[in-house]
Write a structure and sequence with these properties.
The complex is a heterodimer of chains A (172) and B (296). Chain A has 172 residues and is an all-alpha fold. Chain A has 6 helices and no strands. The radius of gyration of chain A is 16 Å and the shape is globular. Chain B has a domain of 79 residues: Rod shape-determining protein MreC, domain 2 (Thrombin, subunit H). Chain B contains 5 helices and 12 strands.
Chain lengths: 172, 296
């Protein structure tokens, strides 16, 4: 039974992004700022740090593939970025201590990295016509604030869940 | 140099970058159909989204209704004022419709670009990264949805079907920034002026109606609708009203800023419209070729 919990949680995070956007689009999105939920990335950060690197990379790949196929319909971008970022997180955590505050900072940092990378890809593919400063003002900062709030809310339950999962896999 | 090739991680990275570029190229080209793994993934996720969507939106809808209740009094008063206008308008429309029908019968013309059959659908998802404004609806090819069909809400046109899968489809909104996202439109008035809806001003929340001949005089506030000459869309689906007109960089064309009638953010129920008049493929092609020539 417990084997299915992690994929279910992952699926829940995956769907929550689109639900968030459909629900709050009326209120949040009529403003000039653009808030992008990056809940999957938060999930991956916690999975990589409190679970294992291998798990993080595999889940990053699968969730990225789903994201590309279902939401953006351009294959490859998220499928490539999520595993790479997970790998980098695990490298970064070798230097840093694992406490909740540091994890918060790391997750915000990597969400920023993801946003910038996606922005650059879209500029190359001509889906975006923004200057970088405009991008920071309109997209990056609101997105970071939203996701920081989400991370603070979700941090403790996520951490517990991941640690439980890690224990179970070790016992196996 | 051999050491460089021995680095397994570096090789892995390089190979994955090559695959990445290939995949992006694969998915960006014009394709009639999405590949079956994609179809399978989207439909499976679509099923789960469908399950989650209903309860969540009904809870959210309840709170929205509570907020709406506060404005009921004002709205009611305004609506009553409008009602008188409506009655006269209705009789007028009735008369015109009858006349139109009679004239058509005299001419023996059966096809009407205006006629369409709607397919009702519910929005079950939206692309969270808002670079591509794409929504997912719960109807697919099994229900008759095809690529490039127009999608409307009760207020007006919102976009077109980007890809249709067996049980779900994705809709690209008019506000999406994509060079391929073009819709032939007409400014209604004494004289019909044609143009192409192309692009969206994110800051001002206005659509851009481009390629209007430079000598046309456009009244601010005139209605913009689909022209039906693009091949797939029916005629006169409402798009918006003209807000501002500017001359292009070289003075050869004009661009009108159009305020959309439909709300691109608060979308819940939509209709996919299928034009009853079949499009002539050759005509279609020559039209798109013309369009292609105009682009620099």
């Amino acid at each position: 039974m417990s084997k299915f919990i992690l994929p279910l949680v992952a699926l829940l995070f995956f769907i929550s992004e689109s639900l968030f956007v459909t629900l709050f689009s009326g209120e949040l999105y009529n403003s000039e700022q653009i808030f992008v939920p990056r809940f999957i990335m938060v999930f991956l950060v916690f999975l990589t740090i409190y679970g294992s690197r291998k798990m993080g990379v595999i889940y990053g790949f699968i969730l990225g593939l789903l994201f590309d196929a279902v939401y953006t319909e351009i294959l490859g971008i998220y499928m490539f970025l999520f595993p790479i970022l997970c790998y980098l997180i695990s490298k970064a955590m070798k230097v840093l201590q694992t406490n909740l505050f540091i994890v918060l900072i790391v997750s915000v940092l990597f969400i920023a990295l993801l946003e910038v990378a996606i922005f650059e890809v879209n500029v190359i593919l001509h889906f975006a016509e923004m200057s970088f400063s405009e991008f920071v003002e309109v997209r990056l900062l609101p997105t970071l604030i939203l996701n920081l709030a989400f991370t603070i809310l979700a941090a403790f339950p996520l951490k517990l869940q991941m640690e439980k999962f890690e224990l179970e896999t070790r016992e196996d | 140099m051999p050491q460089f090739f021995l680095n397994k991680r570096l090789i892995l990275l390089l190979v994955s970058i090559i695959i990445l570029v290939a995949l992006i190229g694969f998915s960006l080209r014009e394709r009639e159909k999405v590949s079956w793994p994609e179809q399978f993934l989207s439909d499976t996720i679509g099923f789960v989204q469908n399950v989650f969507h209903k309860p969540v939106t009904s809870v959210a809808g309840f709170f929205e209704n509570l907020i709406d209740l506060q404005h009921t009094y004002d709205e009611n008063r305004k609506l009553k004022e409008r009602l008188d206008e409506y009655v006269t308008l209705k009789t007028q429309v009735q008369g015109l419709e009858n006349e139109n029908k009679e004239l058509r019968e005299i001419l023996g013309k059966k096809d009407d670009l205006r006629e369409y059959s709607p397919i009702q659908a519910t929005v079950i998802g939206r692309n969270p990264d808002r670079w591509h404004e794409i929504i997912t609806i719960n109807r697919g090819t099994n229900q008759g949805v095809k690529k490039n069909m127009g999608v409307i809400t009760s207020r007006g046109l919102i976009g077109k079907v980007k890809n249709a899968k067996p049980f779900t489809s994705t809709v690209q909104l008019l506000s999406s920034k994509d060079p391929k996202n073009r819709i032939s439109a007409v400014i209604q008035g004494q004289k019909e002026i044609y143009g192409v809806i192309e692009g969206y001003d994110q800051k001002r929340k206005l659509l851009l109606l481009k390629r209007i001949p430079y000598n046309e005089k456009i009244k601010i506030g005139s209605e913009v609708a689909t022209s039906g000459i693009g091949g797939v869309f029916p005629e006169s689906l409402a798009i918006g009203t003209v807000e501002e007109v500017i001359t292009d960089q070289y003075g050869l064309n004009q661009t009108a800023y159009v305020k959309p009638v439909a709300d691109f953010y608060d979308i819940d129920n939509v209709m996919v419209v299928e034009r009853l008049t079949p499009s002539v493929d050759e005509m279609d092609e020559s039209f798109s070729n013309q369009e292609g020539d105009e682009t620099p």
